[in-house]
Specification:
By secondary structure, this protein is α/β, with parallel strands linked by helices. It has helices spanning 3-11, 18-30, 35-48, 52-64, 91-102, 120-124, 136-146, 159-169, 177-189, 211-227, 249-260, 266-283, 292-305, 308-319, 324-329, 355-367, 406-419, and strands at residues 79-83, 106-110, 148-152, 195-202, 231-238, 246-247, 338-343, 348-353, 381-384, 391-392, 397-403, 420-423, 436-440. The strands form four sheets. The protein has a four-stranded mixed beta sheet, with helices on both faces. A four-stranded antiparallel beta sheet has the order 6-9-11-7, sandwiched between helices. It has a three-stranded antiparallel beta sheet with strand order 10-8-12. Helix 5 (91-102) crosses helix 13 and helix 12 packs across helix 13 (292-305). The longest helix has 18 residues, at 266-283.
C-alpha cells in the first residue's frame, strides 16, 4: 500500500479494495501514514464519497481499533443518544440523568465542539473539576453504580475515530455524510448498546442544512445500527434557530441544569422529553402501541419534574471529580468579564435568528477551537432573548453578549446584529421548522 497512490485513486473516484483501505487506515493509527496524507484522503472523500464496501470497512476498522464494552449481569437496557451537532444543543446534559432515572444504563461517550457547534464534553468541563477522561474500568464502575457515565473517547475507544474527529475539525471536512455516520456509529457500537436515538439536525445552523441530505444521513445511520443489532431511531430536529436561549459552554450548562430542575426553555424541555420517550419505545418493546409515544412522554415528564434526575446528576458530578455542592448552588458559574447587550434599534417583528453566525462567533471569541490543542474559554457566548415572531419595542434587549474582552464583545455584537433579523411593523415571522421535523425508524 502506497498512501499517495490510494489517495489519488480516491480523488479520481475509483473504488478502493477493502484490504488496501484497511491497510491505509491501520497505517495511520500506527503512524506510518502522515497527518497530511490522511487530511488529503478526507478531502477526497468530501468530493467522491465512499461506496458501501468502503463505508463498511471504515466503520469496522474504527470499532476494532479499540475496546468494545459489554455489560454482563446488568439488569437494565443500555441506551444512548447522539446529536449531529447544533448551536445551543445542550440536550445530552439533561437527557442522560433523566434516562438513568427512568430505568436505563447510559454509557455516554461524547465529543468536543466541532466546527461552529458546541460539544458535550466542553459543556461538562465548564463544571470545575469534572473529569471527562476516565479509564474504562472506572467508567464501567460508575455506570453500573449510578446508571450513567459521561466521558470522551479514551485511547481505548475507537482511537482511529478520535484522531479523525480532531483532524476533520481543522481541515474543513466535517459535513460529509459517510464520515459523520462512521464517526458517530463507531463510538456508539463500542458502547455495547441495546438502543440508540440519533438527533440529526436540519436547517441553516446544521452541518447538513438540506433536509434531503440530513434524511439520507439519518437513514444511513439507522441502517448501520440496525444491521449490527442496535435498535436505532433517528429524529430530524430543527436547527434554523438556536436550541434554547443560550450559546456557549458555561451558559448552556447552566441552562441544562435549569431543565433538570424542571425549568428551562420550552423547546429544550420538549426535545429532552421526546428523546427520552423514543428511547423508552425502542428499548422496551412492550411500551409501544397506538398511544405509546404520548404515554412514554408523560412518564418521562413525571420523572423529570420529580427532581430525581438532578439528584442523580449531582451524584455523577461527585463521582467524576466535580463539586456537587457548587453545582447545586450555582457557585460554579463564573460570569464573563464583559457582558454587553444588543438592543433593537427600532420597533418591529423578529423574522429570524440565524444560528450559524452565533456559533462561529463563539469560536472566534475563544469558546471553540481553531487548532487541535487550543484551550477554550467556557465563559463566552450569547443569551438570545429574541425569538422568531416576537414583536419588539425600540430599545428592547435582543441578545446578551458574554465576552472575555471588549474586543470579543465587539466581535460578538457584530455577529448578533447579522444573526437577528427584524422587520418593521408587524410583518410575519416567516416559516420556521417544527422542533421535530421527521422521525426515521428501521
Amino acid at each position: 500500500m502506497i498512501p499517495q497512490q490510494l489517495i489519488s485513486r480516491k480523488r479520481d473516484g475509483l473504488a478502493l479494495a477493502p484490504d488496501e483501505l484497511r491497510a491505509f487506515l491501520r497505517g495511520y493509527v500506527a503512524g506510518e501514514v502522515a497527518e497530511y496524507q490522511m487530511a488529503a484522503f478526507l478531502m477526497a472523500v468530501v468530493f467522491q464519497g465512499l461506496s458501501d464496501p468502503e463505508l463498511s470497512e471504515l466503520l469496522d476498522v474504527m470499532v476494532s481499533s479499540g475496546a468494545v464494552l459489554d455489560w454482563p449481569g446488568l439488569d437494565r437496557p443500555v441506551v444512548d443518544k447522539h446529536s449531529t451537532g447544533g448551536v445551543g444543543d445542550k440536550v445530552s446534559l439533561a437527557l442522560a440523568p433523566l434516562l438513568a432515572e427512568v430505568g436505563f444504563a447510559v454509557p455516554m461517550i461524547s465529543g468536543r465542539g466541532l466546527g461552529h457547534t458546541g460539544g458535550t464534553l466542553d459543556k461538562l468541563e465548564a463544571l470545575p473539576g469534572f473529569r471527562t477522561a476516565l479509564p474504562l474500568d472506572e467508567f464501567n464502575r460508575i455506570v453500573r453504580k449510578l446508571g450513567l457515565g459521561m466521558i470522551g473517547q479514551t485511547a481505548e475507544i475507537a482511537p482511529l475515530d478520535r484522531r479523525l474527529y480532531d483532524l476533520r475539525n481543522v481541515t474543513g471536512t466535517v459535513p460529509v455524510p459517510p464520515l459523520m455516520a462512521t464517526s458517530i456509529m463507531s463510538k456508539k457500537m463500542a458502547e455495547g448498546l441495546d438502543a440508540l436515538l440519533l438527533d440529526v439536525k436540519v436547517g441553516s445552523g446544521a452541518f447538513l442544512p438540506d433536509p434531503g441530505a440530513a434524511r439520507r444521513l439519518a437513514e444511513l445511520m439507522v441502517r448501520l445500527g440496525e444491521g449490527r443489532g442496535i435498535r436505532t431511531v433517528a429524529l430530524l430536529t430543527a436547527m434554523d434557530r438556536p436550541l434554547g436561549e443560550t450559546v456557549g459552554n458555561a451558559l448552556e450548562t447552566r441552562e441544562a441544569l435549569d431543565c433538570l430542575r424542571g425549568g428551562g426553555p420550552g423547546d429544550l424541555r420538549e426535545l429532552v422529553l421526546r428523546q427520552a420517550a423514543e428511547l423508552v419505545l425502542a428499548a422496551e418493546p412492550g411500551a409501544s402501541g397506538p398511544d405509546g409515544l404520548r404515554a412514554a412522554m408523560a412518564r418521562a415528564e413525571e420523572v423529570l419534574d420529580s427532581g430525581r434526575p438532578m439528584e442523580r446528576f449531582l451524584r455523577l458530578v461527585e463521582a467524576q471529580g466535580g463539586d456537587p455542592v457548587a453545582v447545586e448552588s450555582g457557585a460554579w458559574f463564573t460570569r464573563a468579564p464583559v457582558v454587553d447587550v444588543l438592543e433593537a434599534s427600532e420597533a418591529g417583528t423578529v423574522t429570524g435568528v440565524e444560528p450559524r453566525g452565533l456559533g462561529e462567533a463563539v469560536v472566534a471569541m475563544g469558546g471553540g477551537r481553531t487548532a487541535l490543542d487550543q484551550e477554550i474559554d467556557a465563559r463566552v457566548g450569547f443569551r438570545v432573548l429574541a425569538t422568531p415572531g416576537q414583536v419588539l419595542q425600540r430599545g428592547q434587549a435582543l441578545v446578551e453578549i458574554h465576552a472575555a474582552s471588549p474586543e470579543g464583545a465587539e466581535l460578538g455584537r457584530e455577529a448578533a446584529e447579522k444573526s437577528i433579523a427584524v422587520a418593521p411593523g408587524g410583518a410575519g415571522s416567516g416559516e420556521a421548522l417544527p422542533l421535530v421535523v421527521e422521525r426515521i425508524g428501521a
